[in-house]
């Protein structure tokens, strides 16, 4: 049997976060410039209406009743996501472009309710019904922006006019698809237009559609751009009413139409790909990928968690007709006699196509703080408050591949599709993109931490000693136990990494004095998984592996050594459920169903993780008592991974592939073959890694690491949370 090509990665790193989040400092953003449709329009359509669109229902109560007490042109009962973002950034609500005499010094909103991504001329040329039939597409909004730009930049410094502006691009696409579906086209016919619609959004981020010449938006100075996906169309009362089916199999358990939701998933998958390309092309711009799709599904799955009424999640609050959707195309919200529900704060659906203020607040919170934005807006906004730059990486960001030649030739980590999702090329990370601490670095507004073996690197803001495959116990000890140390058979253990740290310490502390590491964040681990993997893959039983669980002492000793060197902030991670890893599942496969838990994980393999994590918690408690002035942050991999398996849809994962390797071979149940590893010729990644949990068999996808990082930053998978300490 050939050993696996790469090992568990998450090891040891040092990063500075000195001076983070100074009290009383302000956000980096001084204005918001918004493009979009009804999800963002703060009044443009109603100002356009007379005399072009007489009798517009948005101008009537109960629109606006919850917060403003009167209609404002917003297609909801109160505030929109954009409003909550402005409030969080300490900015006024963004005025609509068509507001004559409006003050645009703190931003301007070009969004128009009903605006499509594609132009009116194009859609009408396809014999589609467009409502409202006006020139308000993304193209038109970008033309308005180009016209207004001179006055927006008046008195500002040259090319950096928009260096402190937050651009919000969309969402766009939902109105295009609505035009198709309400023009009696099938979902399959609408699907054919998805690439064209996504391209227009992508080009909107990059290009101002001016005839002479084409202007690149980012080169106009846009540095921070939010790009939202579209919501699940199959969960919208208007679509559910229009495309109602007598066949129950056409619906998901939450009551949404499968066919229409496929449209949204396809759009969002292509959009993520375009964002990845743009990030690679413009590395100095921060493109924030925001989501409507996942939070709306979360509202339907767990309404009580968000304060919503579980019995009315698909009922229109302001509508008519009664269950199942309380929507009637002839009795829409705003018409005489059509009333809102008694408590809109407990409703999800507002008028049949748009959401309530309560739902928008929850979406906005996910964009501001995670998990529904990558990176979260507040992480970017607050990064300006850092007086000293830093980086985080909770795993090897390149040490093993730098070590590899000539010692470890042919290392598969050096090949695509590793790194393809975010970086577009392999970086030495054992995943498709970023790792947990890459996201933590972004959250703190810091650069990624350079690997220790990167010659000529500047370690003044941190250094990463992590090596893929490193065990807690030394190579000499493991080999002395007649264990096969698979990848890599090198001296990279926790003991070795601490020695590297000791050697580098004088240069790290140059001119820093006695409190050299008082403002540094240390990351210890995770450690242990590679030790257990080596034991199990040396044909030892789980019971034999349990004997080695006291290796936790080496981790506790390592933490204590760092404290004695002056460390005040230390993250200590537990190990993940070993019994949920495809190679372990394949190697220890059992014909007895009783050997598996409800997730499909091996009970015996998970006992290893539970035993180590229980002992680790005890050691952390002792260390906290011994060193009360040191903040030891206990973080988790075990619980979030089980949460992914319990509720994959809540995290945007495909519930049918949670134990399938994305980049592997062999097909179900695990798509893992020891002789056909990720990175070998012909081995390709799955179509959409963002919906996968398992990356190459041993490691997770960027999407999973992002969710774990959010749990460490804000809870519930860290005690205390990293952001609580950073503040």
Textual characterization of the structure:
- The structure is a single chain.
- By secondary structure, the chain is of the alpha/beta class.
- The protein has two domains: 12-21 and 390-648 and 702-726, Rossmann fold (3-Layer(aba) Sandwich); 31-42 and 76-302 and 373-383.
- The protein has 24 helices and 14 strands.
- The strands form three sheets. It has a six-stranded mixed beta sheet. It has a six-stranded mixed beta sheet with strand order 3-2-4-7-8-9.
- The chain is globular and about 85 Å long.
- It starts with 11 loop residues before the first strand and ends with a helix.
Summarize the structure.
This protein is of the alpha/beta class and 727 residues long. Helices cover 34% and strands 7% of the residues.
Portion of residues in helices?
Answer: 25-40%
Main beta-sheet strand count, sense and barrel state: 6 strands, mixed
Rg from Cα:
27 Å
Q: Provide a count of the helices.
A: 24
The third-level CATH topology of the largest domain is: Rossmann fold
Number of strands: 14
Shape: globular
Which features characterize this protein?
2 domains, 727 residues, 24 helices, 14 strands, alpha/beta, Rossmann fold, six-stranded mixed β-sheet, globular
Element layout with pairings:
Blueprint: E1 12-16, E2 31-35, H1 44-52, H2 81-88, E3 107-109, H3 120-125, H4 138-152, E4 165-169, H5 174-182, H6 187-191, H7 194-206, E5 207-208, E6 215-216, E7 224-228, H8 237-242, H9 258-281, E8 286-290, H10 293-301, H11 357-369, E9 373-374, H12 377-382, H13 399-407, H14 436-443, E10 462-464, H15 475-480, H16 494-508, E11 520-524, H17 529-536, H18 542-546, H19 552-564, E12 569-573, H20 582-587, H21 603-626, E13 631-635, H22 638-646, H23 702-714, E14 718-719, H24 722-726
